[in-house]
């Protein structure tokens, strides 16, 4: 009797599996979404990094946007110019000018230069530390726990002396580091030259308040903007107009760098 029951159960399972397989096969054909062959071709030309640097969730979404919405073909920072040329060939369009973009850290202070620091015993992540008041005097500066390091797929950013530091030989400009930084001090910017000047500070407080919490803080003295027109002081914080920089302005920028009283202006990129 037990053998008969087992046999009936086994036969029932076999029959059910056949029926389910048939239903799934029918559903696969009936509800199959046809993919534009051109989308597949563009997707194959993209690097497959799925980093989101183009502004889309992944390469497949970007490929679909290129084909269906005429999105520019030169938004893939990982693939670079060669990828843009390949996709442009598939689409039959002009690839347009592609200026390489990289990550910039708008903070330049090591641990010893950050004042009013306290011992932090919480979760060793930037997003966790950012919820705690008073772990360092500057509420704008790098926290140094390496959320950006974990986010980077290319090993292009490291924490050195408590400061996120970019390796420009590896950086692809994908933007993963910028997206996870809770203080928003990392930005992806176009590099007109191999290296560009950066105001390595994000402190928007008054010059006096900034100096009290960091030795390298910008104090809004306007010394840089008086020498070079690529520097713009907004409130008490200077910033560099990256699009305006070129090698022809290098000498003036060097003079501005030397004139900066806190030495918060530095060059970033491939020297």
Description:
The chain has 271 residues and is of the alpha+beta class. The chain has two domains: 37-91, Electron transport complex subunit B, putative Fe-S cluster (3-methyladenine DNA Glycosylase II, Chain A, domain 3), CATH 1.10.15.40; 101-269, Alpha-Beta Plaits (2-Layer Sandwich). It has helices spanning 2-30, 37-45, 59-69, 80-91, 126-129, 147-151, 176-180, 207-213, 223-227, 250-259, and strands at residues 101-105, 157-160, 163-166, 186-190, 195-199, 231-234, 237-240, 265-269. The strands form four sheets. The chain has a two-stranded antiparallel sheet with strand order 1-4. Helix 2 crosses helix 3 and helix 2 packs antiparallel against helix 4 (80-91). 33% of the residues are buried. The mean pLDDT is 90.
Write the layout of secondary structure elements.
Elements: H1 2-30, H2 37-45, H3 59-69, H4 80-91, E1 101-105, H5 126-129, H6 147-151, E2 157-160, E3 163-166, H7 176-180, E4 186-190, E5 195-199, H8 207-213, H9 223-227, E6 231-234, E7 237-240, H10 250-259, E8 265-269
Antiparallel strand pairs: 1-4, 2-3, 5-8, 6-7
Primary descriptors:
8 strands, alpha+beta, 2 domains, flat, 3-methyladenine DNA Glycosylase II, Chain A, domain 3, two-stranded antiparallel ribbon, single chain, 271 residues
